Each structure stands twice: as C-alpha cells, then as structure tokens.
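Many introductory courses stop at the sequence. We go one step further.
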Amino acid sequence: MEFKIQNISDKARAGVLKTDHGEIKTPIFMPVGTLGAVKGVMFENLRKDIKAQIILGNTYHLYLRPGAEVLREVGGLHNFNKWDRPILTDSGGYQVYSLSKIRKITDDGVIFQSHIDGSRHQFTPENVMDMQRCIGADIMMAFDECAPFPAERKYAENSVKLTHKWLERCYNHFSKTLPLYGHNQSLFPIVQGSVYEDLREQSAKFVSQFDCPGFAIGGLSVGEPTDIMYKITNLVCDILPFEKPRYLMGVGTPANIIRSIANGVDMFDCVMPTRNGRNAMLFTRNGIINIRNKKWETDFSPIDEDSPVEIDKTTSKAYLRHLFVAGEMLGPILASIHNLAFYLRLVEEARQAIINNNYTEWAKIAEKQTMKRL
C-alpha cells in the first residue's frame, strides 16, 4: 500500500492511498458496512450516487455471521458481497467494549458472549489477525482495548499497556502469515489513552515504532466533549509519522470531520449518516433537517437543490416526509443514500480546498453552514 501527499493547506492534507483494489483520494469518509453491507443501501448506489471509494466491515460481526469457514470458502468478503473496491475491517475491539456486561478482558484477550445466541467465544490478537485474513480486508486493524468515557486514570493506563502488548502480538502474527486471496493486506495500529494527553502522547510514540503503512486514533467517539477530541487529535497527529495516513475511528458529525481534517486526519468512518438517516435526520450544505417536522408537509422543493445526486433532485421534502410518516421503508433508504452522498461530497470539497490552499477559510464557512438547524 502506498500513500502520497499531494498538497497541504495549513495542517490539512490531500493525498492518494493506493491499494490492490483501487485508489482512495483523501481526506475520505468510509461508509460503515458492518456485516458486509451498508444498511439499506445497494452497492449500485454506493458506486454511482454516493461515490464511495472504500467501505468498512466488522470483524466481530463477520466472525459470528457468516463466520470464517464461509468467508474462506467463498474467497473473502470481496467475493462474497461483490464489492470490488477497498475494504477496511475494524478489529472488533470496539464491539467487545460495548458488550461490557457479557465479556471479560484478560492479558491473553477477551472472552465474550455472542449478542445473538449467548454462546461463548474468545478473541486474541492472533485469531483476530487470522479472522481478518479470512475476510480479506485491504486494511486490517490491530486488536485494541477501548477505554470508556469517563475512565479513571489507572484504568486508562492499564488499557494503554494492554493495547500495546496486543499490538506487538498482532504485528508479529501478521508478519508471520500471508494474505489468502492474492491481494496485499495492510495492518494499522491504534492509538489509545482516553482523554489523558500524556497517555495519548505515549501511545502515539509507541505505535509509531512499528513499520506499518498507516495508523488509527481510537477511543474518541465514546462520549468525550468535542473540544477534548480536537485537542487530542491535534496532539496525536503531530506525533504520528507525517508520510503515513491517519484514520480517526468512529467520528463523526460534519463539523467533527471538518475540524479533524484541519488537525491532519485523512480517514473517517461513522454510522451517523445512515443511522440518523433512518431516523429522519438529513445533513445538507445549508444545515440539518428533521424531515418528520410538519413544516415540510407541503414543501415540494427537492431534498437538496445543490446536490448532483438524482434522488436529491427528483424527490421532494414533502414526499420524503410522507414516506417517513407512513412508515414506508423507502424513506430511510433515500435518507441514507442522501446523507452518505453528502458526506462524500463534503470530504471532496475539503480535498479541493486543500489543493487550492484555502482550507482554513473554506472550513469556517462549511462548518457554520452544515450545523445549522433548519
């Protein structure tokens, strides 16, 4: 995998990330396809309307269903779902974190109960690497321990130590194994440390020692205030290798993305555009719309007049509101497509502003516009 920075505007970077399944122009937003599918969105829409360059899969969920045997037999997730562009897989660490009542963390790994049937399983750094080899993701994440917010200092210290131990084991096992399906795979370590700046600095320096083509920043979408998120992201980006891509995991709102690009982040993912879309919240260049509100009942203007996406130009706000009020499943589908397309256009606009050397000016206007409530 290769990453080339094409231009810098203040600290914001425009680059190209090359994988065996295609190029990714950064900064980039990656739609979340937890089970190998972006909820309610056809791949045709992802390619044509949304213009997604890469999607995510999740190791925890794919391990439980359909499982390693099925994925290995079919030749990996690319063959299974027929998505021919890059895929990144989360290690499952965040999902295990979210199962706090039905899991036990040890030095060796995590013992957890399936949220599906209650069966017991164990994740270790080694078998998480093996599972991601079975999935065949272009970018694999190291197995980490995500501290909750708030977290006591001692908990955060132990969490960082455990994450670093697991990273060493992930890296060693990754180095001893080969891809299964003829395309290269890359491992990204994850910086942890909760909201403690010295722990974040320590973690960023530690992971930077590993010869990996990119790095991730985890544990910053668990409820901490946004000003702390920005402060830590800025700190960590100043430490991580300049020439490698930086991925901020699970973040976030349009404003979060605009601010984090300014701090030097290149890659983002979040369930917000699809989850909020399913709940009638639309992100637009002019602000946020709750399409269920009665004010849209007789508004026959397009969802987004400035959008190049066909459904945005041909679907009225009144009709979309009708679909939601009537409980018609097409409503959440259209809203999800709209939101994802908006997020991808947002990062494309950010990229162009970086190339034009006016990112800071663009960002001030874009952040103010996108977060208004309409």
